Amino acid sequence: RADTTADPLTALLAHSPPATQTALQCGLLDSVISALRQVHLSLLVQTSSTDKLKKNNPLVSEMVSYLTLLTSFLYGSDSVKSAAAQLGLADTVHKVWLWCQADPLHLTMALDLLITFTANCPDAAQTLVLTSTLSGVGQRKVPTSHSLVHALVSLLTRERQPLTVRARALTLLSHCCQAHECRVVIAKSGLLARWSDQWVDRRQPLEETELMWLRFILTFTFFIEGQTSLPKTGELFAQLVQCAESGRTSSRPLAVAIIRNLAALPANRPRFLSTKSALTLVGEKLLSGSSEEKRDAALIAWALAANHQKAKVALRGLGLVNRLQLALATSHDQI
Q1: What PANTHER family would the database entry show (predicted)?
Q2: pLDDT digit string (tens) for 42-61?
Q3: 126 and 11 fall within a common domain
Q4: Are both 182 and 246 inside the same structural domain?
């Protein structure tokens, strides 16, 4: 039985970096990924639909054992992550994705594996757009139109998913932002528009739900793909300004930080200058925001005014120069 061997190995690899390196040198990673591929083929032969899965299916139990073992194997080891990326780990996980989705617990395990795999590893993140569910086809060399990143976006559009699953999916998408190809898929997916619609429909979403989305959007907008796509997404820009102004105390700093990221792109300057509420927000945060918010507001003002006379005039007209001076004089931190 796979779990008879996997369980002690999982415990050992989770606590021993030397054991991890020895196992890698001995080819254990290749063997486990190959075994997971074999489980996928066996599941295909046994059943093509999760509806036909019997409870306590030994193949599913074997799949779970391998997912758990791989998570421990990858934890904290850049060399193992790089090797796993070359061996097509993401593609293999995508092959068994259908069966993982049959149980929220198994889906959580798959997401935990991928989160560990992609943490601080751009090469691993980039492989998530090279996957497919097609049997007999390995990891591609160019992005596919039905990759794991697409599957994550699809997962997040299903409102009935448990909060723990959605939180992990957003964490994984945040890791995916390390790779340009993944950011392009996210920007084109319409994911931000769906969240914007949900944000409007649910006047007061759960605080944890709102925070995890804002954290993801903050990560995404550190990159040009996010900075470019967000202002074009329905009312999301206005919603962020409103959240920064009068949202939950826990959400406001995140919303201000996202707006700061958007201001860093010169192409977004016209949107700011034509949105009085955004400029007013900057002044309010300089006057009465937290130290973090004052710092971000100052960065927004600087980004908008840099080498742009029209923006300088607009900011002066709102009295932002005096507020900047006051914020600098009263702040305990350097703005």
Answers
A1: ROTATIN (PTHR31691)
A2: 999 887 666 666 667 899 99
A3: yes
A4: no
Chain-centre distance of CA 315, in angstroms? 34
Query: Both 141 and 250 in a single domain?
Result: no
List the Cα angle 159/99/49 in 5-degree steps. 100
Examine the domain organization and report whether 205 and 112 are in the same domain: no
What's the CATH number where 5 sits?
A: 1.25.10
The phi, psi pair for 119, rounded to 5°, reads -60, 120
- Using alpha carbons, select from 290, 315, 295, 292 the residue that is nearest to residue 304: 315
Q: How many domains does the chain have?
A: 2
The pTM of this model reads 0.92
Domain enclosing residue 1, as ranges = 1-189
